[in-house]
Amino acid sequence: MPHRNRVTPYGDIVASPLRCDWMGNRGCLHRDEDIVRPWNGNRWITCVLEFRGWVAPKWEPGRWTALFFHDEAVAFAAGHRPCALCRRADYLRYCEALGTKGADDIDARLHRDRLDGSSARRQKRLHTMSWRELPDGVFVVTDDGPARVTGDTLHPWSADVGYLSTTERPGRGDATVITPATNVAVLCAGYALS
């Protein structure tokens, strides 16, 4: 049975058999092998699965909780950014695309963008943008669930299998966007997802 450590585009942490290409961190979220909080701090990063022979500890008491993402588009939608250590080149490209430096400022901005409501009842913040203005890699809300925008198509996404059959991207009107505004700005500025 899979552990509850996979992250959806909405930022939810679920149990899923889906193979993941990226790992993430939001602080220590677990007790034993159970997720007991959605985040602990505002530094939400995306890491490689292995770095210089080091593999992240999993479920160690008092240590950060290893989370997993299907791909970087899902991590961006959930509100994560590249790690400044194991993904240094990607982090620098991210900073350049955003036009800022300093992880603390970026993390504070992302935290404001990804959560809505009072601290006791915070939920994923959604926003609207014109379908025509959406860059590739952004996740949007559709009748079939979350979907990644790529060119003129939408790729619906499922926590069980990943991407499903493509559908056509609407040519006009507004989309409800899942990816936080900061990460949308990074994609609009030309950051290419890994």
Major sheet attributes: 5 strands, antiparallel
Oligomer: single chain
Assign the structural class, choosing from mainly alpha, mainly beta, alpha/beta, alpha+beta, or little secondary structure: alpha+beta
Shape: globular
Q: pLDDT below 50 for ≥5 consecutive residues: which ranges? A: none
| Integer tally of domains | 1
Radius of gyration (Å): 16 Å
Mean pLDDT, as a whole number? Answer: 93
How far is the N terminus from the C terminus? 29 Å
Helix/strand order: EEEEEEEEEHEHHEEEEEEEEEH
Count of DSSP H/I helices: 4
- The proportion of strand residues reads 25-35%
DSSP E strands, number: 19
Work out the helicity level: 10-25%
Layout of helices and strands:
Layout: E1 4-7, E2 13-15, E3 22-25, E4 30-31, E5 34-35, E6 45-47, E7 50-51, E8 54-55, E9 67-69, H1 72-78, E10 81-82, H2 88-98, H3 103-114, E11 115-116, E12 123-124, E13 127-130, E14 139-142, E15 145-150, E16 153-158, E17 162-163, E18 167-168, E19 174-177, H4 181-188
Parallel strand pairs: 6-10
Antiparallel strand pairs: 1-2, 3-6, 3-9, 4-5, 7-8, 11-12, 13-19, 14-15, 15-16, 16-17, 16-18
Helix pairs in contact: 2-4
